[in-house]
Amino acid sequence: MSGYNGPGNYGAPQQQPGPYGQQPGPYGQQPGPYGQPGQQPGPYGQPHPQQPGPYGGQPGGYGPGGPYGAGRPVRVGAAVGLGVLATLVAGGAYCGLIAGTDKLYAWAAIFAGLVIGAVVGRFGGRHPAMPVLAVVLAAVGIFVAQYFGIAFSVQNAYNDHGMDISLSDVLDKLHIFDAWKEEMKDGSKGFLTALGVVAAGGAALGAGRSR
């Protein structure tokens, strides 16, 4: 007898089947859980580098910017600060338009909302709080602009008739809020004002996705 007892003799123990009845892979590779193949070793016994995730991002599916968008980092503080600044600028321009023409142009509220939302989204990225922040800032900015714009218009009307009156007197003694509500009862003005607030949220969302 030659002593040959089949494969695996030659003085080496036979390999035992792996879990779930699978055989070990080449180079001593062990199969992964649930029958999945393990990681293939690279040259000189080093493991291959991990494959990138979907869409060319990091493993796990997110891009370099994490879950709130790829590319540039999310700067919440800058978004808040510059959003407030944009509200002051856009609101001031809107207030000046109302005071200079003595008319409440509600369509201008849309432009003010778009400017505020674009600034917030530009710096806040895809952070889920940015559209909400833009809506809040736009609502406050548009209301204050319309309120003080009406107040300046009333002051101008009194001054044009030879009655000197200060802005503080207008705000204290006259019912500016009631005058604003009367303006909003006009269906088109109320709708366009609300549309300007909503437009701010949409602009923030769009600007954040485009980063």
Write the layout of secondary structure elements.
Elements: H1 76-101, H2 108-124, H3 130-160, H4 167-173, H5 176-184, H6 187-209
Helix pairs in contact: 1-2, 1-3, 2-3, 2-6, 3-5, 3-6
Keywords: Membrane, Transmembrane, Transmembrane helix
Number of strands: 0
Succession of helices and strands? HHHHHH
Output the radius of gyration.
34 Å
**Uncertain regions: pLDDT < 50 for 5+ in a row?**
6-12, 59-65
Q: Largest sheet, if any?
A: none
- In terms of structural class, how would the helical and strand content be classed? mainly alpha
In round numbers, the mean pLDDT is 79
Number of helices: 6
Shape: elongated
* Fraction in helix: 40-55%
Distance between the termini: 78 Å
Give a description of the structure.
This protein has a domain at 76-209. Helices cover 54% and strands 0% of the residues. The relative contact order is 0.12. It has helices at 76-101, 108-124, 130-160, 167-173, 176-184, 187-209. The protein is built from six helices and no strands. The chain starts with 75 loop residues before the first helix and ends with a helix. The chain is elongated, with a radius of gyration of 34 Å. The chain has 211 residues and is an all-alpha fold. Helix 2 runs antiparallel to helix 3 and helix 3 (130-160) packs across helix 5 (176-184).
Summary of the model, kept short:
Keywords: Membrane, Transmembrane, Transmembrane helix. By secondary structure, this protein is mostly helical.
List descriptors:
single chain; 211 residues; mainly alpha; 0% strand; elongated; transmembrane; transmembrane helix; membrane
